[in-house]
Predict the structure.
Amino acid sequence: MEPRPLAPLSPPQPALPTSGMFGAAADNGFDEAVEFARLRTQAARYLKPEDVERLEAAFELASHAHAGQFRISGEPYVFHPLAVAETLAQWHLDAQALIAGLLHDVMEDSHVTKSDIEGQFGKTAAELVDGVSKLDRIESQTYQQAQAENYRKMFLAMARDVRVILIKLADRLHNMRTLDAVRPDKRRRIARETLEIFAPIANRLGLNTLYRELQELAFKNTHPMRYRVLGKALRAVRGDQRELIMRLMTSIRERMPVWGVDAEVYGREKHLFGIYRKMLEKRLSFEQVLDIYGFRILVKDIPGCYLALGALHELYKPVPGKMKDYIALPKANGYQSLHTTVIGPNGLPVEVQIRTNEMHAVAESGVASHWLYKDGTAQSLSDLQHKTHNWLQSLLELQSTSGDSSEFLEHVKIDLFPGEVFVFTPAGQIRNLPRGATAVDFAYSVHTDVGNRCVACRINGELRPLRSELKNGDQVEITTAQHAHPNPAWLSYVRTGKARAEIRHFLKTVHQEEATHLGERLLSQSLRHIGLHLSDIGTTAWERFLKEFSCKQREEIFTDIGLGKRLAAMVARRLADLQDEKAISDGETPARPRTPTPVLIQGGEGMAIQMARCCRPIPGDPIVGLLRKDQGLEVHLNDCPVLTRNHSSERDRWVDVEWEAGGERLFDVGIRVLIHHRRGVLARVASAIADQEANIQNVNMESEHGGDTIIHFTIQVKNRPHLARIMRAVRHIPDVVRIVRDRSGDKAAEKR
């Protein structure tokens, strides 16, 4: 939890501008010329005179474009872009960014176009304004879909130029500061978006002051009553512990020179949102949250940080496990500091941050203090800039592997939260990953190919499962195989957006190809049921069908059928109707009925055709197919109880299927063997199975009354005759009482 300044004890902070809160309306004494003069004065301190003149021209255009427009609060609309530009000036952004801040809404709210802006202020300013502007909403889109598209556009523009998001953050800050005039439901929605998207972005870019203010404003608007109650309680505690805090700060200040440390010591009070989040996460009452105060020690250099830590720990005992060294291991957003919690007078725990003045500047202003576009050479980039640049580039990778905008936004949200686990490659390089990250996340952080082909891992020299969660200091080595590929089960435990996006992209690509072939076979079968062949459907019928369903090519229809998104029978009937209409219009007779044929199953088609885990069919079994939405065709036994119990109402999705002759694939099947428990009987049963050229995949044993034992085997067989030979061989063993095929399969599958 990042603390906020305790006013009488804190140093002067590079405060965010407050000019955005102008009041209610233009006739209450608001003068846009006066507000711009303040912006002009601030910008003139670091911009060239010619840039200030361009800023004046941008203000004139914004004032003209927004003339007659008012915000919900009643104030003239132009005060909003002025407030945004003033925030950007506080961050000392360049002229193009300030111009874009003044003009960021003109493309949405007036007839000014991107070409107009480019003609007057240049391509860069026009691109920045376009990056911040929302897309036109399509009528068929929901609000959530439109928002996801807008965020996607913003993130991709941000990946090209970080100033886009800095402008958007300044825009969101002023909107949050003036949210009181908005109706309550919209206020809560905007506040939630701020907590989920904009506050984490500010944190990811190292804008901690902005991050904390956005969190506070979002908390105030999502839970106004809790905000007021906590604020009142905090003010009461502040008065009670004032003298104690002053005594603590004085003792720390006096101890530093004794250790030869030239330091400034300031008191801090933690944010209401940070206190509230701690209460929720640890289920504490306000009275149980003791560390609501903290201190910050600023020194001249890094050795001074560690000297100050030693002096502090000599003065007050540290709390074990609460010391974090973010100087040696900086956070992903470039944040550096020493954190420790000590027990002060009266047993009061106090959090202390120790950092240099340069670290403090980065902690408060982050990437805004020296952004990437000033000099594109790699040599000019600081560590913070490199990390920010790499993160922005990762957004472009997510864009190329994500499907729709909602999926892209989901992946970005995952990566917005800071990493807390530092692990090492075999070469000693540090990788920063989020808490809960696994070896698979690590593999994808190294390279996409390493992730896609990983088969095993060693953590600290020991072989461990790929789903193992990584801990601070782990050394991870990934083993890859040339023909390995991602497992869909990985999606249940990976934590990084990159890993999730790459796995989905691979599975979707492979799955789509298989689904296309399956869909074509299913459609061909459905057409045979109504007397047609796929080749009977002419180009005209296909063109009319594709136009009706807004598709560009036949493969899209095949894929949708294979994924269960469309029913083959319905597509076949509509195509047949269109073909009959064409034949009648041409004076021809429709094609005669033909004998329907089932879909042939090999069992090795891939993910588009799956053997149901509830009944485990094998070649030779009577089977039926179930077309499951987005999962392809699932093959069940004809008498599968799960199929008849859970899917009897979906008979229109049942498909006639048969086994194709000559398949050589092995299929998992369960057998249950009841034995007299004698020495060596398990080995004899396993040997009998192996003698019949079958693989044993899994073995489980359970005791029965009377000293007998049931052994559950999962074995791999070619077909029913192969299984029958195995069961005969096992049955001939003297200690085997009974052997049956186990059709219970996967218990989880039965519950679907």
Observations:
- The CA atoms of residues 130 and 524 lie 48 Å apart.
